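Subject: Sanity check before I submit

Could someone independently write out the structure tokens for this chain? I want to compare against mine line by line before I put it in a report. The sequence has 447 residues.
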Amino acid sequence: MAITKKSSFLRVCFFSLILLFASLPHLFAIDLSKEEKEYLRTKNTIVFVSQTRYPPFEFTDANEQHEGMMLDIARWIAVEMGFKPVFTDMTFQQAQEAVLSGKADILTSLFYSDKRKEKFEFTGTIFDVPVSIFVRTERTDIKDLNDLNGKTIAIQKGDYAREFLESKKIRFNTLDTKDFAEATDMVIAGKADAVIGDEQIVLYHIFSNKLTAYAKKVGEPLYIGRNCMASNRDNAILARILNKGINEVRKSGVLDKISTKWLGTQFGHHESFLERHLWPLSAAAGGILFLLLWVWVWNVRLRTLVRKEAEVITRREEALRESEERFRCLLQNVPEIAIQGYRLDGTTTYWNQASERLYGYTVQEAIGQNLLDLIIPPEMRGEVQKSIQQMVETGEPIPSAELSLMRKNGSRVAVFSNHTLVNLPGSPSELFCLDIDLTTSKQAKEA
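---
Independent answer below. Compare away.
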């Protein structure tokens, strides 16, 4: 009986301490100096300026709402640090000028370079962005950097690509554009020979506007851009404050959640604070039992603080679930791109509606089946398995290619296929396949 009472008493002590910690957010808050706290208190509102069309990092959607990975990070930091964020958008060149002139406080996306460091104060690198050459599909004369000599290059005004080409002593003519989408369109229209563009952004434009038959990526990435946030040099304290927030975003696992949300991959399990620190808290409980009296005296105040913290967490989780559901619906209902996910053994894990229409199998029929048996012709399966194995061993992606795949009724369909390997901590590796039906374009060519 005495043991039972003692165990109950210890449990009460333990959970009382948990409530105490929850009621004292400053114990776990982002560590700011007195000067930094005073800056945020005085400033209160921080103006973030981003590019109008730079998806998935930042963009303005059809409802004129500011969305993207960098803005999700800024919103999370604002909640944690208690300041009000204001978001605006413009062209990349205008955004840089707005920060340098003081009309805006923070540029949400800017590649680091030593030359830019003379004007801007950078945070740490948030995302690495590969930058490649894109040309019209029929061009065979441009394969790498040296082939750009004497060519007309479409470049987003203010982009680091110009500085990179000049550092490599490349002679080129420039066609300035307001964003990567316009630069890509200039190449397709024949007004420029090539565009040097951030891969995620250019590929997003090509796929979303059904331009895969008109443009292609050539060669290996020219460089990997270090995408950061940046203020002007006179506002360096703000960059330092945000850098602390970015470190907390990365350490807490929120950055991984934001990245995988916008890339369309499944979320892995992230341990809660209690799961990671249960034993240390339990061991420390015996040494701080005297705080129970303090907890009891301030019980009413603690309940109020805990309720407010719970409301903040609930709002944050609801917003994250809403974003996840929006992106899931986008993938599931995208009309032109058949998306399948499968493990290395071929087991199908994802099958969207476009896949149902293209191949004839329902989601229920496809999930759990071997993808190679469903849509890969028998004569191609050995080669496909070999390509998958090679990608796993070397890390090099399977080249995008035009393939003739099988439908449920036995007929063949021509598709443009792209494979991506996804490795999430604690989860089996998966491949995602994006197929675009080429039937219409082939019929048009034949006609």
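---
OP: Matches mine. For the report I'm noting this point. The first strand starts at residue 45 and ends at 51.
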